[in-house]
Amino acid sequence: MSLTSAATLATLDRTGPRRITDLAAVEGVTQPAMTALVRVMEESGLIERRGDASDKRVTLVCLTEAGASYVRTRRQAGVHAFERLIGELTGDEVAALMAALPALKHLAELESQDREGPRQ
């Protein structure tokens, strides 16, 4: 799976159903490229398209259970990889990571805000 595909699934998991145009902007790709990507992931059973109850002209892209499961599995694999690697650090290195956690959390929040669009 491409990084853009994985990132798109993670965005849908984090933010819920989105329009293709919104996904394209968030992931930094063109609308035609996102449409093609959505088609492939839809054929793979990871996402589905649904109508928007508030605007019948709009189609939203949603995660399927298989897509949500893929995101959970991928995140868990990342957690296990970090656990293994952190286990190989010295006590001082672990302490340095712990001290950096507030700043890393803030960076993650800023990145999430950037991916969701401009702040109001």
Write the layout of secondary structure elements.
Layout: H1 3-15, H2 20-27, H3 31-43, E1 47-52, E2 55-63, H4 65-86, H5 91-116
Antiparallel strand pairs: 1-2
Helix pairs in contact: 2-3
Q: Mean pLDDT score, rounded?
A: 90
> Approximately what portion of the residues adopt beta-strand conformation?
5-15%
Radius of gyration: 17 Å
Low-pLDDT segments, ≥5 res:
none
Shape: elongated
Q: Give the strand order of the largest sheet, numbering strands 1, 2, ... along the chain.
A: 1-2
Number of contiguous helices: 5
Label the structural class: alpha+beta
**Major beta sheet, specifics?**
2 strands, antiparallel
Estimate percent helicity: 55-70%
Task: Explain what this protein looks like in three dimensions.
The chain is of the alpha+beta class and 120 residues long. 68% of the residues lie in helices and 12% in strands. The protein has a two-stranded antiparallel ribbon. A hairpin with a 2-residue loop joins strand 1 and strand 2. Helix 2 (20-27) crosses helix 3. The two termini are 34 Å apart.
